[in-house]
Design brief:
407 residues, alpha+beta, 3-hydroxy-3-methylglutaryl-coenzyme A Reductase, Chain A, domain 2, Alpha-Beta Plaits, ten-stranded mixed sheet, 43% helix, globular
């Protein structure tokens, strides 16, 4: 490193002496980011000074979290709750950290949390876990496809040993084959403990693919064949799950519904059926819910998750019904929630603080318990959000709430 200044670095880029993406090789990461801000401001004729205000070490973020860093975007963070959770991995009262720029969102979920508390709290459980990667192989014909499928089934132990040789934390759970003509897709599913695990399973699957190519006539075409399916709407994730499948529910007395939400259990159940179920079906939706993505996105940003995976996180079904006693039963089930409490964005200080608010930062004991607890917290946040929005629609207060809160 040299004693370069942002201005001198920027000048060297202009002169073609060094490249824009190479600045960290010639100065510390903060100085490199400042030099890029000068260059971007000059080219775009934009004021980017606000991007230089951040509370983390740029050297830690460079390479592991970001490239060509110019600074940071600040998103307001609030909390909803505390809300009482009876989970398989998370129990007690917790504040739910949420980062968003949407006015009324935290207030709405906070209202839902308050009503959930009046009902005695929410129950949440992770019902399935496994991160997937699905390479696609080329074979000669369907006979070779069947031969590959048979080999995989007979040699799953070999694939497990090969894949797991690349990681001390990942465990290969199963390999499911899918044949389309002379294409064979193998959907590898792993237990990644407290990591979201996308990098882990990609490296492990590549090692397994090398073994398959060495022992069969199949040729690997792509390490991801989109049957995984990552960061895209996909029915396979809605049905089979990816990451963690998690559900949360609550029973709320008629009295609480009427007094706190100004509507009835029957109204909420009917709105859920006609809107979330029938309306979503008519629209061809994969998510049968009101706005689960809102809670998922806000808590993803607050806790350092991969924000693009909100796509899969919105794979959720909300149910609502009136119990024989006349009370309200409400549930939300998220089929493919991809979360982790170690690695990636969870290491940044503000995101780590979000995890600390929940008490789930780092590896859990036993392994995977912190990841499960985070999934349960997000499910409860989604449940509270669904309750609040359905009730607002039932009482016809939705537009007035947004107007009052600046929307």
């Amino acid at each position: 490193m040299t004693d370069a200044t942002p201005a001198s670095l920027a000048e060297r880029v202009r002169d073609g002496e060094i490249r824009f993406h190479e600045l960290e090789e010639h100065a510390d990461a903060d100085t490199a980011a400042a030099a890029r801000r000068l260059l971007v401001a000059e080219t775009a004729d934009a004021d980017v000074d606000a991007l230089g205000e951040y509370a983390f070490d740029a050297a830690d973020a460079h390479g592991s979290n970001i490239e060509n860093m110019v600074g940071a975007v600040q998103v307001p963070m609030g909390v909803a709750g505390p809300v009482a959770v009876d989970g398989g991995a998370l129990s007690g009262e917790r504040y739910l950290p949420m980062a968003t720029t949407e006015g009324a969102l935290v207030a709405s979920i906070n209202r839902g949390c308050s009503v959930v508390n009046d009902a005695g709290g929410a129950t949440a459980r992770v019902t399935k876990s496994g991160m997937t990667r699905a390479p696609v192989f080329r074979v000669g014909d369907v006979a070779e496809a069947e031969a590959l499928v048979s080999w995989v089934r007979d040699n799953e132990g070999v694939l497990r040993e090969t894949a797991e040789s690349t990681t001390s934390h990942g465990e290969l759970l199963d390999v499911t084959p899918y044949v389309v003509g002379n294409n064979v897709y193998l959907r590898f599913r792993y237990d990644t403990a407290d990591a979201m695990g996308m990098n882990m399973v990609t490296i492990a699957t590549r090692e397994a693919c090398d073994a398959i190519e060495a022992e069969t006539d199949a040729s690997l075409v792509a390490l991801s064949g989109n049957l995984c399916s990552d960061k895209k709407p996909a029915a396979i994730n809605a049905v089979e799950g990816r990451g963690r499948s998690v559900s949360a529910d609550v029973k709320i007395s008629r009295e609480v519904v009427e007094e706190r939400l100004h509507t009835t259990p029957e109204s909420i159940a009917e709105i859920n059926t006609r809107k979330n179920l029938v309306g979503s079906a008519k629209a061809g939706g994969l998510g049968f819910n009101a706005h689960v993505a809102n809670a998922v996105a806000a808590m993803f940003l607050a806790t350092g998750q991969d924000e693009a995976q909100v796509v899969e996180g919105a794979n959720a079904i909300t149910t609502a019904e009136t119990t024989p006693a006349g009370d309200l039963y409400l549930s939300v089930s998220l089929a493919s929630l991809e979360v982790g409490t170690v690695g990636g964005g969870t290491t940044l200080p503000t995101q780590a603080a979000g995890l600390d608010i929940l008490g789930v930062r780092g590896g859990g004991d036993p392994a995977g318990s912190n990841g499960d607890a985070l999934a349960e917290a997000i499910a409860v946040g989604a449940l509270a959000g669904e309750l609040s929005l359905l009730a607002a629609l039932g009482s016809r207060h939705l537009s007035s709430a947004h107007a009052d809160l600046g929307r």
